[in-house]
Amino acid sequence: MLFNSFAFGVFLPAAFALYWWVFRGIRAQNAFILAASWLFYAWWDWRFLGLLIVSTAADYGIGLRIGAIDDDRRRRWGLWASVAINIGLLGCFKYLGFFVNSAAELLRALGFEPHLPVLRIVLPVGISFYTFQTLSYTIDIHRRQLAPTRDFIAFAGFVSFFPQLVAGPIERARDLLPQFHRPRAFDRADAADGLRQMLWGFFKKIAVADQLGAMADVVFTLDPRTASGVTLFFGALAFSFQIYADFSGYSDIAIGCARLFGFRLSRNFAYPYFSRSIGEFWRRWHISLSSWLRDYVYLPLGGWRGKAGRLRNILITFGTSGLWHGAAWTFVGWGLLHGLYYLPEVLAGRRERPSAAPTWRDLPRMVPVFGLVMAAWVLFRAQSIELAGSHLYRIFANARLRPYDIVPWITAGVWWLVALMLAAEWRSRRDAHALERMPRTMAVRWLIYVVLILVILLRMELYAEHAFIYFRF
Amino acid sequence: MLNMPSSTSASEALRFAIRASACAGLIALLAAAAMQWGPPAAPSNYMRATVLKNNRLLRAGSPKVILIGGSNLAFGVDSDRLGEALCRPVVNMGLTAVLGFRFIVEEADQAIGEGDLVIVAVEQSSYECADPDLDALATVLDYRRESFALIPPARRPRLWLSLGVLHLQSLAEHAWHWVAMGGPPHYADRRWLPNGDLVTDHLTAIMPADAPAPQEYASLEIDPQFWVIAADLERRAARKGAAVVYSFAPLAERAYHPDDMERLTRELAVHGHRVVGRAADHVYADSLFFDSWHHLRAPGRRLRTERLIEEVCTARPGECCDLSRPRE
After folding, report:
1. With 70 as the cut, is the pLDDT of residue B189 above it?
2. For residue A60, what are the CA distances in angstroms to A95, A150, A384, B170?
3. Contacts for B30 with CB less than 8 Å, ≥ 6 apart
4. From the list A9, A191, A457, which residue is nearest B16 (CB)?
5. Catalytic status, residue A391
6. Which residues of B touch A188 (CB under 8 A)?
7. How far apart (Å, rounded) are the C-alpha atoms in residues A274 and A365?
């Protein structure tokens, strides 16, 4: 079920009403959340619900087993079983075709004539998210940082919680699972703020991302050799804002939706395009994935120990991040490129530290960072590394600043909405979302809500169903 | 807060839900106002033809010929010539395939009577997906609200929502045109004939020679639901003493896949449907189409009509009264 679908428009109010008025008490509410989440997932394709249940049951059982034994060697076997199951699922459904194709290409390059099957495997939606979520649960138990839960309903609710099931934020058990064990009471102020956060998420998705998507789709199907530099530049710019508005919009809807049910999800975006360095960008972009990779890949590899080790670990971690996004060399290249961007900061010895919110004086540092990120998005979006390279090269090689090339791009109405999004988020850069601080006067607040809803409805493309970009990861 | 009794939570949630519903209600009121007093959801003389076609269908007595399908019929049949050859009035219900086969059948079923001949000529997309595009359907229902009765009740809320949003969008578009250009937007005037045929200046345009072959015709996978609806149509027609035959939507040479069409013909026969003519006879030169591989230009329309007459008269001689007229 998509958040931006009619089905969800019916599902959410019905789930809200049943949750608060019919299923009172924590056990009943947890059971209801689980049933609603499985329905939400099965709406897309019920056959893959079995996969989710298998993954849940396996990690629930393994978690209990690891928690029940003291012997480190046997605990490690339990952990490897969990890793094998989760990575195995991911490998089968997400990466098998990619590795088979890559092996075939390699063999062909070596002069062999391989007869490997062409695999077309359907990628179960959300698999990259929920496998990482359950994996962190067993790893934390193995590290003795978390006690396993005996409550299967609560655990399954944690894995399948519908607001974040298909595209995150990737929650840690230590943050979300205890919320399934505590009684929840309805907090009107929190729910109202959650609804505002959802509204902002819908604005970003429907009014900004979907409009920019149409623009980016056109440009990325052109042959870069013949397209003008201006066109290629605006295509890259459109995709940069599209992917931000799409994914952060999804996260806002997910977090806001969870708040309606009395849950707090982790923050996933903190205005990444206002970053002053690549390190800061990664502390603000897809925070739940970055911190997962830091805790379960980078630090176990050795983290900051030794200069050479540090560089290697950073490249491995960023490469993994790229591969997590998709089974294609463009994604791996995108991750590695970000790793390369980050190396100078590492070599300069800058350690991660919380930084104050940016100001206008930081603009000269923010613009180049955005430029680097935008160049990397071309690699992420392009069909191949060659096409991405050609796209970037032709932005400059084919640069002809003629009015009739530029005017159609800069006069597109969607840029006003991008400007509105950036202005609202700049104003709220110290807040969790752009509508957190609202005017005190109720009439003004309501006017803002109604105008935003109208903008969403007026920009909505009824004939097309635009899935969120991260659903395919 | 965490120790708050659940009844307090429920009443707090209720107050919250009422306020949120008030906001949604305000938007619904705006949409309702736009629906009542604003311009049509999708101002277009094309979709408005649903009124003309349904009026003709409901007024024509039996026996008659009812053509059902998508836009291939709107552009590609000379109903008057067909009517002359078959000695009875023709109602061309073809509008657009995206309305879905179920809706197209339900529309025709309103007026199927004894002695009627129903000719089904749907596009490939209707075989592949019998479901309608609900948003396109909403634009048709906007012009003819009585057609809501033909829609399953479970689908109606979604259609009303689409209508509300489309009306708001249409109002905004009109307002923008008033501000920017000092007048309402211009919509192409399409000259629908009273029999439901569409004769416009498009009939003189030609599909560009370098237009790519459409990918969607590369393979045919028939939606099982199509057979359910087709069987339902047969049953209803038989009960009313009418006959149903299947013809083929015209297809351009470059979009034609003989294997698929032969399989379709076989499957129609296996499911007990009467087919007139051969798919291969409804493959026309690319130059006879204009803006899609199903939309015939005037010369193609004449050719297709004559072929259809010949096929119906060969398969069902009793339905035909005139084979002596020379072909154009």
Report:
1. no
2. 25, 8, 40, 53
3. A454, B168
4. A191
5. no
6. 12-13, 15-16
7. 9
- How far is residue A392's CA from residue B326's CA, in Å, rounded to a whole number? 64
Residue B65 bridge partners (DSSP): B90, B117
Query: What Rg, from alpha-carbon coordinates, does chain B have?
Result: 23
Rounded to two decimals, what is the model's pTM? 0.84
How many contacts does A have with B, using Cβ atoms within 8 A?
Answer: 75
Instruction: Give the active site residue among A142, A325, A391, A433.
Output: A325
Distance from CA of A285 to the nearest CA of B (A): 31
CA A148 to chain centre: 27
Whether B324 shows a pLDDT value over 70: the answer reads no
Partners of B168 on chain A (C-beta within 8 Å) are 454, 457-458
Tokens 């459409």 correspond to B214
pLDDT of residue B10: 83
pLDDT band with cut points at 50, 70 and 90 for residue B188: low
What are the b/e assignments for A193-221, b being 16+ CB within 10 Å? bbbbbbbbbbbbbbbbbbbbbebbeebbe
Residue pLDDT, tens place only, B19-34: 999 989 999 999 999 9
Report DSSP letters for B189-256, one per residue.
Answer: ---B-TTS-B--GGGG----TTPPPPGGGS-----HHHHHHHHHHHHHHHHHT-EEEE----EEGGG-
- What are the counts of helices (DSSP H) followed by strands (DSSP E) for chain B? 11, 7
DSSP state of A437: S
Local structure of B169: helix, strand or coil: helix
Question: Block means of pLDDT (10 residues each) for chain A, length 473 residues?
Answer: 86 94 90 96 87 92 91 89 90 80 81 72 82 93 92 95 90 93 91 95 94 90 87 94 95 96 94 93 94 92 80 92 89 94 83 72 93 96 92 87 74 89 94 91 91 90 75 70
Please give the pLDDT value at position B244: 95
B192-201: average pLDDT: 77
Residue A431, min C-alpha distance to chain B (Å): 23
Chain B positions touching chain A (beta carbons under 8 Å): 1-4, 6, 8-10, 12-17, 19-20, 23, 26-27, 30, 133, 135-136, 157-158, 161-162, 165-166, 168-169, 172
Chain B residue numbers touching A195 (CB-CB < 8 A)? 20
What's the average model confidence in pLDDT over B266-275?
92
In this prediction the ipTM stands at 0.75
B23 vs B5: CA distance, rounded Å: 28
- Considering only CB atoms, B4 lies closest to which of A21, A185, A449, namely A185
